[in-house]
Design brief:
Length: about 150
């Protein structure tokens, strides 16, 4: 990337400085560099996903050893909320970094980047706090009030 010649506009019309929009500004194409970047991204995403999958298999094995049904339900509930956040995060990362260069569009990439960098971190506390009983009670009271107010 640092050896590519850049000419023309020096502004990236993107949510943050990412590789694909930066490569679009280059005057020349560096196919070997793009392949290396793709392979590195693939390895990072695949290795991370594989380690998380392995840890979930070990967690599943441990959960199945829990003798009570209530204990298994609580453990699966915790894993499910974490899994939602992981799937959203890795789904967006995979779409951004593991697709062919020919499928690149600026508008789609910006939307996915916003989801990847803003929505996922904001979703994290929401998903985990909804498991808290006090938050569930407060949410039910709040939604109950807004429903009653609309009926009047």
């Amino acid at each position: 990337i640092f050896t590519l010649p850049f000419c023309g506009p020096n502004k990236i019309h993107h949510f943050f400085c990412d590789l694909a929009p930066l490569l679009e500004l280059a005057c020349a194409r560096n196919y070997i560099g793009e392949i290396v970047i793709f392979l590195i991204c693939f390895l990072v995403v695949f290795c991370s996903f594989f380690l998380i999958l392995l840890s979930y298999l070990l967690i599943l094995n441990t959960i199945l050893k829990i003798p009570t049904t209530d204990g298994k339900r609580k453990a699966f509930s915790t894993c499910a909320s974490h899994l939602i956040v992981v799937v959203v995060h890795f789904g967006c990362a995979s779409i951004i970094y593991l697709r062919p260069q020919s499928r690149y569009t600026l508008n789609e990439d910006t939307l996915i980047s916003v989801t990847y960098t803003l929505v996922t971190p904001l979703l994290n506390p929401v998903v985990y706090s909804l498991r808290n009983k006090d938050v569930q009670v407060a949410l039910r009271k709040s939604l109950g009030r807004s429903t009653c107010a609309r009926k009047m």
